[in-house]
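Morning!

This is the sequence you dropped in the shared folder:
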Amino acid sequence: MNAKLALCLLVLPLYSYAMTCPFGIGFSAPQGGIKGEEPYFFTPEGVCLNGRDVSQQLKSYPDDKITGAFSLAKGDGSLFFVSVYSEKHYHGRVILLSDTNKGAGYAVLFQNQPGIRTNNPEESVENLTINYFDNQTSTLYFSADAWAQARALHAIIWENPSNPLRVTERFIHDGTFQGVFNGMPMVSTIAHDEKGAYFPSYVVRNDGSIYCTINTRENFWQLTPSCLSPGDDYRER
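The structure's back. Tokens below.
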């Protein structure tokens, strides 16, 4: 993927009150409605820092939209992830925000080259949105529209969490993010056999290989998933 890292922390000016922000210390993101079928994900109304709206400072283009926000680690607002997407300029970014004793700042962890569209679905950034940060594995998951009937799930991985600016980004699997199980993401996707389309859900490793097929006959399987038993070829249609 045509990804670039901007590794400099930059100071954010704090002066805007365009959105009603909750009073508090650190970063926060007032939430809107749930987006689509992706659990954990809510459309943010914007991003706040210490009760002030800093959304505009995170935008590069007039049509930029803040598509996702997620608090890192303990959720105390000192570290925060935000995703921003411009349809007109075809530019998606994943940003790490920090609020320390030295002041507030941000670093771009991932971005594509603006305006350069790709025919490879695995490299799409269309409607890029962050999904979830797994503190257990120091992995941030984000998705983008890719295929006609499936999104593309990606991971940003920290090999050394003590250095928050050194990351590896990779495509994981096609499908809709459904959560994390034992440090591995779950996705629901579409497949085809001689009877037509069916809709499997998998637990996948971060190298993209399938760990198992999930038994989606069980209620609330996203919360307590179990794998299909050997020989059980259940296919949801």
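Headline: The chain has a mean pLDDT of 85.

More detail when I'm at my desk.
O.
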